[in-house]
Amino acid sequence: MPRKGAAFAGLSVALVTPFKNGEVDYDLLRKQVEFQVDAGTNCLCPVGTTGESPTLSHDEHEKVISVVVETARGRCKVMPGTGSNSTREALRLTKWAAKEGADAALVVAPYYNKPTQEGFFQHYKALAEEVSIPICVYNIPGRTGKNIEPETIARMADLPNITMVKEATGSLDQASQILATTDLTILSGDDSLTLPLLSVGGEGVISVVGNIVPKDMLALLAAFRENRAADATQLHHKLFYLCRDMLGLATNPIPLKAAMKLLGRDTGELRLPMTELEPAGEAKLRKSLAAYGLL
């Protein structure tokens, strides 16, 4: 039997939010969507961590969702970030995404206020019972300050519309436990752990580096799916250092936006408190892009 959420297997890309002179550049956002559609990306995830959602106003957050859904026009799925540390706010955003035609919602664990495991469960229960589109639980304790334990996710799996987990704990043991105890689809939240996660039963990735090289990540996923282990491993090794630099030189999306600027695909502009990549980091990034063959 296919897992719940299997329709979202493959490559999802966590889209950047382009800015120009301090404002969201919706024309460039539409171009980013077209770039991904042309590459064959399965799903787009705007207004997440990579999309700098914490610095967007409520109106901007909603408009980015609407523009991405409208531009995609059903050519690929759209799963926008609709999470918040306020259940009421997360519900409002998720309802907006559903109304605008999003295919699913990516809901990060409530952050900063560090709820109990029961609080996590009740948060997602409130959303699952009010909204009809599938929900992907985004578990990233390095950002939120607290892990959603596998036992709690197993409870969530019985809720209507909870169908996926974006697994960004860095723990294959946690992913394995979820896969062994639920029928949820697991998507990697760490580019460099995509192949290891696939090996224990994961079915895709919500990718940062896919903003730059979606076709290579698609090739890795295809190689694994087609049982071409050597090809998948080779692509994993090729992507590894690029993934490391996209996420290791500074906080995401600082290096990614710097790379996209170097490649002529973004202004590189960020919103405070995000600041530009320092010169030493940019030099390393240039070297990494050149070694990959992008510069």
Characterization of the model:
With 295 residues, the protein is of the alpha/beta class. It has a single domain, classed as Aldolase class I (TIM Barrel, Alpha-Beta Barrel). Helices cover 47% and strands 13% of the residues. Strand 4, helix 2 and strand 5 (77-78) form a beta-alpha-beta unit. The longest helix is centred in the last third of the chain and has 20 residues, at 229-248. The radius of gyration is 18 Å and the shape is globular. The N and C termini lie far apart (44 Å).
Which helices and strands appear, and what pairs or packs with what?
Layout: E1 10-14, E2 19-20, E3 23-24, H1 26-39, E4 43-45, H2 58-72, E5 77-78, H3 87-100, E6 105-108, H4 117-130, E7 135-139, H5 141-144, H6 150-156, E8 162-167, H7 172-181, E9 185-188, H8 194-199, E10 204-207, H9 214-225, H10 229-248, H11 254-262, H12 279-292
Parallel strand pairs: 1-4, 1-10, 4-5, 6-7, 7-8, 8-9, 9-10
Antiparallel strand pairs: 2-3
Helix pairs in contact: 1-2, 2-3, 3-4, 4-6, 6-7, 9-10, 10-11, 10-12, 11-12
